[in-house]
Amino acid sequence: MNTAPLVSAHRALLAGWGKATPSTAELVEVDEAGLADAVKALPARGGIARGLGRSYGDPAQNSGGHVLRLVPSHDAVHIDDAAGVVTASAGVSLDDLLAVLVPRGWFVPVTPGTRFVTIGGAIASDIHGKNHHIEGSFGNHVTRLRLMLADTTVVDVGPDRDPELFWATVGGMGLTGMILDATFRLIPIETSRISVQTRRLGNLDDVMALMAESDSDFRYSVAWLDLLATGRHLGRGVLTNGEHARHDELDARAAGAPLAYVGKQLVDMPPVVPGPGVINRLSVAAFNELWFRKAPARRDGELQSIPAYFHPLDLVGDWNRVYGRRGFLQYQFVVPFEAEAALRTVIERLAAAALPIFLTVLKRFGPGNPGYLSFPTGGWTLAIDVPANRSGLSELLAGLDRIVLDAGGRHYLAKDFQTSADAIRRGYPRLDEWLAIRKRVDPAGVWASDLSRRLGLTPTA
Ligand SMILES: Cc1cc2nc3c(=O)[nH]c(=O)nc-3n(C[C@H](O)[C@H](O)[C@H](O)COP(=O)(O)OP(=O)(O)OC[C@H]3O[C@@H](n4cnc5c(N)ncnc54)[C@H](O)[C@@H]3O)c2cc1C
User: pLDDT for 232-247, tens place per residue?
Assistant: First the structure.
């Protein structure tokens, strides 16, 4: 059946999830049939792909240019149960995918802290999850992808087919082309529950020691830290390790529907985050105290649902609005394992600054992959959410940037909105190799974003 290409366009003010640096662009919603024409029609400011806009900063914005959102086709997902792989359109979300996969006994290879991301966004940011220390990032599991280049040719690439272009696209923030679809490996599961081990730990040393000792025993591992605790409680936190539960771990009721899955979103705000307009040091200190005390000191084998363990924030629609009009930023970096002192200094500085930070995640990464701009690399990664535009915040973060870079670390492009081009150059030593590949496939810099201009990710003539 021949159907007409679907294209619609309107001017839109677009922001990342942090809402801190919006800009206006022509937002073009287009299916694969209409994409080549949409790319040929890009203006001098170029175009950039956008998924569900869950990056915190500006990679899916293109001020004064076009932003392209790929509408998935009706037959957007093909599961090969025998091979344990799925092929999905890049516009499909993990939310949609999980609803199909979990009841069939499969799980995505990597999930971030929200399931409202697209396959295109997952590959372009080479996202990591709580299993990075065991299974690496999303790109590690992709066997092939189809990419539309700036001249509208479509290429098939993978780790064994034009690996340079493949690894430049994994983590390439949409700047090598538009990913059309991808094939990736799945994790077989017996149940839709996660068996969770929780440990409440009184200070940073205890958190880091137990993470180092225990994370190789668990597929999933992450710690929440209280960054308002100081003195002997500095860096106190709650470590949660998890595994997909086996069928024989379920009680009789759950065993009747072992793969039941509901990815629900609540309308009201559960006590996961402080309410709107109350983000200040006192409210957040009280929240952190409650969150810390609410966790059991020690609990093993607690069965949690997939949304409760992986995506608790998704229970609250638009929770990013609690930060008000000025928005917020997420600051995420990684430092190598031998740089524990740098991590501690960053945490000390953040605690001393007494910022209202309630979402702080500490995790250990396993080795990185060949992705030129892929963020994860062996070491400790810390992510914090902070209200934007606070006085002294940019100076504080610039100071932290120096500590991170001097320690051999780097920043995550999907979260960034304030780092400098120099910081990215220092943190990503293979940047010039990536720029050369980008120049090969996009010499005129047709793919462009607010992030690419801000951080010098555009090849020079
Ligand atoms: C609550 C929350 C928790 C998060 N937790 C994590 C986490 O644990 N780990 C982690 O790694 N990240 C995490 N993130 C970040 C998120 O996973 C990434 O930013 C992801 O890229 C967002 O996907 P998206 O579809 O919304 O893409 P967008 O934000 O719309 O775009 C992100 C990048 O992908 C590119 N892109 C999108 N589609 C395509 C395509 N078809 N072809 C080429 N390029 C494309 C865009 O150009 C842009 O550069 C989290 C975000 C939120 C809001």
Answer: 999 999 999 999 999 9
- Site residues for ligand 1, CB cut-off 6 Å: 17, 48-55, 59-60, 70, 90, 112-114, 117-118, 120-121, 124-125, 127-129, 173-174, 178-179, 313, 414
- The domains of the chain, with CATH numbers, are 77-189 (3.30.465.10), 193-417 (3.30.70.2520)
Query: Between the CA of residue 33 and those of 29, 281, 436, what are the distances in Å?
Result: 12, 51, 30
Residue nearest to atom 51 of ligand 1 (CA): 54
Residue whose CA is closest, atom 40 of ligand 1? 120
Q: Distance of CA 154 to CAs 75, 104, 186, Å?
A: 19, 32, 25
Q: What single letter denotes the amino acid at residue 416?
A: D
Give which of 112, 86, 81 is closest to 97, Cα–Cα.
86
Contact between 172 and 78 under an 8 Å Cβ cutoff? The reply is no
- Distance (Å) of CA 228 to CA 117, 296, 371: 30, 20, 35
Cα 53 to ligand 1 centre (Å): 7
* DSSP bridge partners of 266: 316
Q: Give me the pLDDT at residue 143, please.
A: 98
Closest of 423, 417, 413 to residue 394, by C-alpha:
417
Q: Provide mean pLDDT across the span 179-191.
A: 98
Give residue for tokens 């608790």.
312
Q: Which two tokens stand for residue 11?
A: 């001017």
- Counting residues of the chain whose pLDDT is more than 90, the rounded percentage is 81
3-class secondary structure, 34:
helix
* Cα 435 to middle of ligand 1, angstroms: 21
Contact 216, 132 (CB under 8 A): no
Ligand 1 nearest-atom number relative to CA 173: 49
Taken in order 53, 57, 59, 60, the sign of the CA dihedral is: positive
300-338 CB burial, b ≥16 within 10 A, e <16: eebbbbbbebbbeebbbeebbebbeeebbbbbbbbbbee
Supply the pTM of this predicted model: 0.96
Name the residue with the closest Cα to ligand 1, atom 1: 114
Q: For 257-268, write each residue's pLDDT tens digit.
A: 999 998 866 554
